[in-house]
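Q: I'm writing a short explainer about HMG (High mobility group) box domain-containing protein for a general audience and would like to include a description of its predicted shape. Could you first generate the structure from this sequence?
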Amino acid sequence: MFPFQEHKKKYPDESVQVTEISKRCSDKWKTMSDDEKKRFFELAQKDAERYQAEVQAYGGEDMAYKKKKRQKKDPNAPKKALSAFFFFSNDKRSMVQQEHPDYKVGQIAQELGKYWKALSDEERQIYERRAQEDKGRYEEEMRIYRQQEGNNTVNVSGGSSSAAAIERVAGGQNIKPEIISSSAIPQSVAPNIVTVAPGQPLPTSVAPGTTIVQVMHPA
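A: Of course. Here's the predicted structure. Afterward I'll give you a sentence or two in plain language.
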């Protein structure tokens, strides 16, 4: 992106399609030496740091992660691990806001970035350790979470040739079931199953250990 921006600065009045400029920049990039490319890598790194600093200063998450989080609606999923800079920003944000009450989000982010870069290795290690501990917490919680998710699914087979799945309700919390053939439900587990006909609403609460199955009758 930076070679593209430089091209636009050099030729502001040039009427050329973006795709053509991109092609020229790509060709130019291929002919550059490592030393010439280094400057653009440094610019990209600084821009990435600026973006992350603004995100952290705002107290939020980047849009890509927010989109993924919106798609994943399970409230029981572990909270994502925080970075060292995130812990630092959480500690120092209020201080920067008090020192500069008129600062906007971007300015606070820049100030936090300056403080972060000014830390000694020893001071930075404090936040690195916190981030490492939080990473361990997240990995362990994810391990347990995935294990529990696996236990919540019980595979059954019966008179139907198609595979079927029954999702068990734990602790009275309903889990949306898959639609399966009624012939795929073993009689041995039928007493513990609450069946729901296609198009019917799921029950709002059931006894712990009960299985909700949405069935479709075989043709």
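A: For your explainer, you could say: Residues 32-150 form a domain with the DNA Binding (I), subunit A fold (CATH 1.10.30.10).
Q: Perfect, that's easy to follow.
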